[in-house]
Amino acid sequence: MTERQLPRRFLTSVEAADYLRLAVRTLQDMRVDGTGPSYYKMGPGRQAKVVYTLDDLDAWVAQYQYRSTSEYQPGGKR
Prior knowledge:
The chain is an alpha+beta fold and 78 residues long. The chain is built from 3 helices and 3 strands.
């Protein structure tokens, strides 16, 4: 029996912010300045719905994982 791959699940900005334990406004600000997780816009134009995937959220969080305070560099690992 082959394992079926589940379809990609998209999270709204509210769901993504909750998952990351951030304010929705913080996530919005990070989209503007390019410091947040990757996202998709569902449709053309400024009013298109913004969505995220769990994989993209997890990948963004992973870049901020540290084992020691001496590893920390503002803006993430380099």
